[in-house]
Amino acid sequence: MNSIATENLAVAYDGNLVVDDLDMQIPQGKITVVIGPNGCGKSTVLKAVGRILKPRGGAVYLNGDDIRRLTTREVARKMAILPQAPQAPAGLTVGELVAYGRFPYQRGFGKLKSDDKKIIQWALEATRLTEFETAEVDNLSGGQRQRVWIAMALAQQTDLILLDEPTTYLDLAYQLEVLELLYRLNRGQSRTIVMVLHDINLAARFADYMIAIRRGDIIKHGAPEEVMTAGVLKECFHIDAEIVKEPRTGRPACVSYDLIRPTGDACDS
């Protein structure tokens, strides 16, 4: 089981320091969701953890090892990361894209071995994509395309999967389809899932552990019941939220909110 943590992490984006002196622990075998307002640094943190962005300072540790000292292949065997709205090359089939997940285990331009092919088929079955194996990715629905990318991550056979806004551009049904798939992977295979989500109600519904970030700082972390509170949302999003227990899941949900405006704001008049 792979564990991940940051220590005094500082990350700059386009020359601007977005995250500074961040200490964060990700629980193993759980679903962790990072929430926060636009531009707060949540995606930047995920990219730094996934080694897409180079930190300006501090460190990211994977199983206690500084991730900067690991080779790309070593990292890819332990951690898969799916960026926001990934794009597949035109004409690529579902099976071909999922097969890319076996790259960390191949040498040079070696062909797929029988074990690789078994793992690819397993990933397709786990994501319910077997019937689409020969279909072009471009011809699939949004929810189906997200499942293909998740299948590719599964083919990497990593215990840790990072996802940046996996429900972006998806309608309500497809959002649930993707998140329920990730939930099954976590519960059935103990995969550690770390996601950035904008929808705080979906975050609270599927997360075991939530991290609320504002301006690169952690406002609150813990169980959904600890993070989805009026006080935390006020500090994090500057909203006056009404939180209730959702009747179907028993999880906290925001049913209504108002903006908290500075005293004397012209919009109040």
Give structural attributes:
six-stranded mixed sheet, four-stranded antiparallel sheet, 269 residues, alpha/beta
Model description:
Helix 4 packs antiparallel against helix 5 and helix 5 runs parallel beside helix 6 (172-189). This protein has helices spanning 42-49, 72-76, 94-99, 114-126, 142-155, 172-189, 200-206, 224-227, 230-237; strands at residues 4-13, 16-26, 31-35, 57-62, 65-66, 79-82, 160-164, 192-196, 209-214, 217-222, 239-245, 252-259. It is globular and about 65 Å long. The strands form 3 sheets. It has a 6-stranded mixed sheet with strand order 6-7-8-3-9-10, sandwiched between helices. Strands 2-1-4-5 form a 4-stranded antiparallel sheet, with helices on one face. Strands 11-12 form a two-stranded antiparallel sheet. Strand 7, helix 6 (172-189) and strand 8 (192-196) form a beta-alpha-beta unit. Helix content is 31%, strand content 28%. It is an alpha/beta fold and 269 residues long. The protein has 9 helices and 12 strands.
How does the SSE layout of this entry go?
Layout: E1 4-13, E2 16-26, E3 31-35, H1 42-49, E4 57-62, E5 65-66, H2 72-76, E6 79-82, H3 94-99, H4 114-126, H5 142-155, E7 160-164, H6 172-189, E8 192-196, H7 200-206, E9 209-214, E10 217-222, H8 224-227, H9 230-237, E11 239-245, E12 252-259
Parallel strand pairs: 3-8, 3-9, 6-7, 7-8
Antiparallel strand pairs: 1-2, 1-4, 4-5, 9-10, 11-12
Helix pairs in contact: 4-5, 5-6
